[in-house]
Amino acid sequence: MIHGKTPAEWRQSHPLLRELMSLHPCAWFNPSVAPASDASAASEADRPTSASASERLRRFAPYVRRAFPETEPSGGIIESPLRAAPALKQALAAHYGMALPGQLWLKADSQLPISGSIKARGGIYEVLKHAEDLALAEGLLQSGSDYALLDGAEARALFGRRKIAVGSTGNLGLSIGIMAAKLGFQATVHMSADARRWKKDTLREHGVTVAEYASDYSAAVAQGREQAKNDPTCHFVDDENSIHLFLGYAVAAERLKVQFAEAGVRVDAEHPLFVHLPCGVGGGPGGVAFGLKLAFGDDVHCLFAEPTHSPCMLLGVLTGLHDQVSVQDFGIDNRTAADGLAVGRPSGFVGRAMQRLVDGYYTVDDDELFRLLALAEREEGLRLEPSALAGAPGIARVLGESQGYRQRMGLDKDRMARATHLIWATGGGMVPEAEMESYLRLGRALLG
Ligand SMILES: *Cc1c(COP(=O)(O)O)cnc(C)c1O
């Protein structure tokens, strides 16, 4: 029995589970998408909002600029480039053997400063928020202070008496660990078995304590949470439940809106925007999608992409069980080379908050991620980690769907021809050269 029903009953009530359990790439387009105004309503209910997160990041810019000189060109604002990907679009059309009307763009979070992945948004934001709370409480900062003073001995002494901990498959640990250690906190990262060796080594080089577990992400998080619970000096960054992480991610949307405007790309009802977001526990894509709905309203369509072996968000939303269900409950093993997405149980908070604001979900198998990784390098010179490619098939999945999604949403042929598809390329900037070469070799071999 699985949650009160036999596997046969589940397959009967949710026919898509058959495909999900047999690990075939599949897609599910949400039949009950709500208007974006639901997101504004939610944001008014939730204080603090993403606007206050954005202001907080501006206050910290003088510190970030000083502590991480690579952020000098952007004045201490941590942001990634937006770029067109016409060559990749053409290659995808050939690869999938179909016409792909519309434009293809790419948001290169792989090039985010400090930690080279989408986690440099939410993860770093939460550490900064915590540091600000402490510094204000201790009188080190007042309103109007120049936050550059946090790069000083007094601040480091204050933070040095405090701990920050997090459970991670790798990239969140890198962001939290590097930022926390830079401020002077005692940082511990609880890492799941999927975490790459080099990510652990990098953290140790930064003076971060790495606790290793033979189990998956959910178990590493549970361990970390347990250890932190009994220590009042320890702040645990809770990837499954944190509103701060979520809001840190959400800030991406207002930045993207400016970038699209500068690039002369229109987004409106006649020029819909499709954003393809790789999804692990859900905080990153959920937060970005939340921000996107506030920034672009009903003109943006968000889709979440997961590995065939770790489709936790799709499973949680489809069954309505959210964090009560894990992929393992349905016999799915949560083993994937996309280590950033190797999550078996989704965030219940994100699933419940976002389920009616996400247009659809699809799964991608690992071999395909590697093929796309090699294609993106060949066509656009991009160096991405496997997780970052999960959204790359999205344009073809949306244009090829036969579930009545486009029709239901009024996305007719003309609108699709004017549409923009955005691949959120979530990471890869810190992958060591030798590791990247082995990814590329595998991808090229699979492409044949
Ligand atoms: C963490 C991560 C994601 C997904 O973010 P979640 O918050 O876990 O859903 C996607 N891509 C990369 C590279 C990541 O590290």
Automatic annotation (TrEMBL):
<protein>
    <recommendedName>
        <fullName>Probable D-serine dehydratase</fullName>
        <ecNumber>4.3.1.18</ecNumber>
    </recommendedName>
</protein>
<comment type="similarity">
    <text>Belongs to the serine/threonine dehydratase family. DsdA subfamily.</text>
</comment>
<dbReference type="GO" id="GO:0008721">
    <property type="term" value="F:D-serine ammonia-lyase activity"/>
</dbReference>
<dbReference type="InterPro" id="IPR000634">
    <property type="entry name" value="Ser/Thr_deHydtase_PyrdxlP-BS"/>
</dbReference>
<feature type="modified residue" description="N6-(pyridoxal phosphate)lysine">
    <location>
        <position position="119"/>
    </location>
</feature>
<keyword id="KW-0663">Pyridoxal phosphate</keyword>
<keyword id="KW-0456">Lyase</keyword>
<dbReference type="InterPro" id="IPR050147">
    <property type="entry name" value="Ser/Thr_Dehydratase"/>
</dbReference>
<feature type="domain" description="Tryptophan synthase beta chain-like PALP">
    <location>
        <begin position="77"/>
        <end position="402"/>
    </location>
</feature>
<dbReference type="InterPro" id="IPR011780">
    <property type="entry name" value="D_Ser_am_lyase"/>
</dbReference>
<dbReference type="InterPro" id="IPR036052">
    <property type="entry name" value="TrpB-like_PALP_sf"/>
</dbReference>
<dbReference type="InterPro" id="IPR001926">
    <property type="entry name" value="TrpB-like_PALP"/>
</dbReference>
<dbReference type="Pfam" id="PF00291">
    <property type="entry name" value="PALP"/>
</dbReference>
